[in-house]
Amino acid sequence: MPRNDLLETFADALKYASSNISALLVGGIVFFLSAFAVGLPFFLGYITRCMREAIGGNGILPEWNNIVDMFWDGLRMVVVFLAYALAYLVVISLVALSVFIFQALNMPFMVLLSTIALVVTMAVTAVVFCVVFFASWVLYATCDSVRVALTPGRIRGLISLDPKGYLTTLIASVAIIAIGSVSALLVVIIPWVGFAAFSAISFNYSKYYQTTLVRDTLARDTLRGAS
After folding, report:
1. Are residues 227 and 19 in contact, defined by beta-carbon separation less than 8 angstroms?
2. What's the Cα-to-Cα distance from 7 to each of 3, 30, 66, 78, 125, rounded to whole Å?
3. How far, in Å, CA of 59 to CA of 57, rounded?
4. DSSP 3
5. What's the predicted TM-score (pTM) here?
6. Which of 4, 51, 88, 104 has the least C-beta neighbours within 10 A?
7. Is 10:176 a contact under the CB 8 Å cutoff?
8. What is Dmax (Cα atoms) for the chain?
9. Tell me: the pLDDT tens digits for 207-222?
10. Which keywords annotate this record (predicted)?
């Protein structure tokens, strides 16, 4: 990732999230409605549009137009999200099963160990899925395909293009979440803080995709020319 400066990545993302105040104000309302499922497809569809336009070079939050296209994009991203949620539940259920088995066998020490294993598994799985989910989201935004977004090889390939750059993007995104969490102490602004955080994070991952893809294409062209 050519622009591997953490502070620059962080600052650019915050600048992007506040680049269109009217879009930000509407986004906060939609984010609030997402808690009741009503606004979720529109929210996910809008963030998908943000990713597409950022990858294309647009550094400003897009307007809330073309609602139908946004809605269908959002529905497909709901499918991606549910696939992750289902995978998470399967992993957790397999580990949780051991807790119930040891309880039935009246083995308290093994119940304790299996409970600890369950808590650790829940935490580790959640972290891993959070790390790769945005890679899936970028893949959907660029390929318009739920299947591609959920293909492990494509996800791994995107991350492996520049692991250091992806880590920088991840750290900047965690910093945005941390700042957003502090800001959200003022309850009334939570929807707008949440929307701004997602917008900023989506910009981070979009720029990661854009810069690594350009670099990878140039490298391949150079090797092709050398041969």
Report:
1. no
2. 10, 29, 34, 32, 28
3. 6
4. -
5. 0.84
6. 104
7. yes
8. 69
9. 999 888 766 654 444 4
10. Membrane, Transmembrane, Transmembrane helix
